[in-house]
Amino acid sequence: MIRSFMASCRPLFMVGSLCLISALTFGQQFNAGFFGGITASQVDGDTYGGYNKLGVTTGLFVNRYIEYDIYWQAEIKYVTRGVYKGPTDNDYTLYRSRYHYIELPLSVHYLYDERIQVEAGTSPEVLLKVTYEDQDGTINASNYPDNRRFGLSVFGGLAYWFNGTTGVGIRFTYSAFPFRPPQEWNYARYRGYFHNVLCLTAAYKITPR
What we know:
Helix content is 11%, strand content 56%.
């Protein structure tokens, strides 16, 4: 299990390490920083609605200006997504799923007036672990169809930088293709399951002197 986990994550950590080494080597050209925050998520395609599942995210980034206030950015991040349906007065059942991912987002940003940032990009990802629970406790994962180990998401977002180093942002992320093969339901018109995530973060940027 541990060897499989390390083998899956090795390419992501290698790319992330290369990004950080580049930032240190070319300090006059690259900015680096870190971020953290919370996520609110749901899964499109199931029977539950609403951004009810809260999670966390944290990671590192490096970026470099291109021209005309446009720059590219690479990240390595950990994020949790999932579904939460709590009990109500008329329905005492509970359902909760947690998906733990490592992502490598790559994006293009536009910075207006050195404060307002618009971003769009894509993010390869690796599923580390998934758990399911109901009102009786943990559900055996084998009761559900297998999820794809490797996935891809697309995202867009807005951020506001209070100064040259500190900012807050919101990002919308959506699965580029189902994280479970849609053929499992034997319904040709059914597209499958897609992660649908809102993320609110705070970031700190280290700029070269």
